[in-house]
Hints:
Layout: H1 19-23, E1 29-33, E2 39-43, H2 53-57, H3 59-64
Antiparallel strand pairs: 1-2
The protein binds iron/sulfur cluster (SF4) (2 copies).
One iron/sulfur cluster (SF4) binds next to helix 1 and helix 3.
Amino acid sequence: MNNIPMLFKKREDCCGCTACYAICPKDAITMIEDEEGFEYPQIDENKCVHCYQCIKVCPFKATKEA
Ligand code: SF4
Ligand code: SF4
């Protein structure tokens, strides 16, 4: 099983709000700082249980796919 959720395709699709990080029941998401000091979520595929709560809570997905 390797189909972990795609939280964002481009960096512009993530505002670093940490909502996905906060909601993940498995602590599978880590916020990783990039070279500009901006934090992006990274999913640990070994911890992820594919509940897709992170996708549901993401404000960017909510506006795009509504
Ligand atoms: S699908 Fe569920 S377990 Fe996986 S990263 Fe998202 S919230 Fe966490
Ligand atoms: S919920 Fe969406 S916008 Fe917020 S940090 Fe996660 S992927 Fe980025």
